Amino acid sequence: MKYLAAIDQGTTSTRCIIFDRQGRIVSVGQKEHRQIYPQPGWVEHDPEEIWRNTQEVVAKARIAASIQVADVAAVGITNQRETTVVWNRRTGKPYHHALVWMDTRTGDLVAEFTKEGGQDRFREKTGLPLATYFSGLKLKWLLDNVPGLRADAERGEAIFGTMDSFLIWHLTGGTNGGQHLSDVTNASRTQLMDLRTLDWDEDLLAAFGVPRAMLPQIRPSSGFFGTVTSEVLPGVPIAGVLGDQQAALVGQTCFEPGQAKNTYGTGCFLLLNTGTDLRVSTYGLLTTVAYQFENQPACYALEGSVAITGALVQWLRDNLGLIKNSSDVESLAQTVEDNGGAYFVPAFSGLYAPYWKADARGVLAGLTRFVNKGHLARAVLEATAYQTADVVRAMEQDAGVPLKTLRVDGGMVLNSLLMQFQADILDVPVTVPTMTETTALGAAYAAGLAVGYYKNGEELLENWGVARTYEPDMDDAQRRRLLRGWEKAVERSFGWEE
After folding, report:
1. Helical spans, DSSP H, in 103-189
2. 41, 207, 40: which is closest to 140 by C-alpha?
3. Quick check: 443 and 247 in contact, CB under 8 A?
4. Confidence (pLDDT) at 324
């Protein structure tokens, strides 16, 4: 068998990428889905639209390269994490739109839960602070607000999953025997799993009011999840499942403790492999499962999550109309030499790591009559680099070691201006690999390892190569001045929401 397929179910689109043994892209199918905003701070997706798109993009990818099903050794799934969907086991129908990871409707629940035990109430078991980000409170909101859902959940008719579970269930038969499964990385983002036992925790379920009957079974990230019965890839085993950021860590072959990667997508996600050592952060980072290969112990990671980075470029395009295409932001930013004193803090859904301020909102600071749209474009790009720098500093303090180089991936790494500024503001080299689609690649790698397509991790290391390294080229005084301005702007965003 020649190929591995990866389904990459992201925040804005669903893709199927087919890879060869060297980790090179053979073909791609992609389709965007609607972003639904019922009111400020609420973000939803239609799960049925995503399932239709998934079938379409798999077919597109196969047709584009004339690939037969018999040529596909296995399929891996990677997905937007924390996005929460509940559907009926008998009918397959969702009870409600999926609540997207950046949705903030659970803000009142965060405040209510924080009163008893503080924001870090569940951090020891889950590695996560109380925040609107994670699935547990989203699921509680659905159970409390969708008529009839709790009764169905108690009977085991209503089942919950992140998008990986929803797709696995549909791909393996749906109402006709679909498998209700998730992997350790996605389960670790629900705030319902104990990081040490790698199983659902009864105390957490009781605290969130979640019936155990609705939860998927948790499996290692690399292993057998069932056989596809859908006509898109009939008979092909699903053998790798990882949340998108953990998949990128695997795709970047960061298998050694101390190796880190940053993915630039809708948000930014920096993960540092800590091996089998589970470290609880004291500097505002998350502890998460990095991956678990079959018959091996789980590996953990420290993670810094930033909610809005690439999404800010989309906002500049769609809400302000300053650019026509997302890629135009770089040329607009290049019309000026610097940010003109302007800073953009994109706290549209609060601030994530390392601040965890649910009451923060977006701020554009330092404006004068001198500032023009070029400066705004530059401030938009620089916001991504500053937020990453905040996370890196926290990570260095938690890990006790300085970062020597940063491996990067995701759509925004094509932006040279951003990557150079990132190296400058961090004062470390930024390395772009030859294959930047590392999220899908990581899911394919996990599937390939499970079915023997690859013998071991060493074979994967041979596929990794460097396309470009950005070296820092900024003097210390300028770096300190820029970071001081950013810190002041961040403080202005705090406490906006009552």
Report:
1. 107-115, 123-126, 135-145, 149-154, 163-171, 184-187
2. 207
3. yes
4. 92
In this model, does residue 421 exceed pLDDT 90? yes
CA dihedral over 353, 359, 362, 366, signed as positive or negative: negative
Residue 245 to residue 270: CA distance in whole angstroms:
8
Q: Which has more confidence, 172 or 404?
A: 172
CA atoms within 13 A on the CB side of 419: 25
Under DSSP, the state recorded for 479 is H
The pLDDT value given to residue 280: 84
**R_g of the chain computed on alpha carbons:** 22
- Identify the DSSP state of 397: H
Pairing of strands 406-409, 260-264: parallel
Q: Tell me the pTM.
A: 0.86
Task: State the number of CA atoms in the 13 A half-sphere of 67 facing the CB.
Answer: 28
Peptide bond into 237 cis (omega under 30): no
Q: Residue 397 — pLDDT band, cuts 50, 70, 90?
A: confident
What H or E segment, with its residue span, contains residue 85?
strand 85-88
Structure tokens at 221: 């990230």
Please check the confidence at residue 299 and state whether its pLDDT lies above 90: yes
pLDDT digits (tens, 9 = 90+) for 117-161: 898 899 999 999 999 999 999 999 999 999 999 999 999 999 999
Instruction: Round to whole Å and give the CA distance between 182 and 242.
Output: 9
Smallest Cα–Cα separation from 147: which of 109, 98, 209, 95?
Answer: 95
DSSP summary character for residue 176? T
Dihedral sign of CA atoms 456, 462, 468, 470 in order: positive
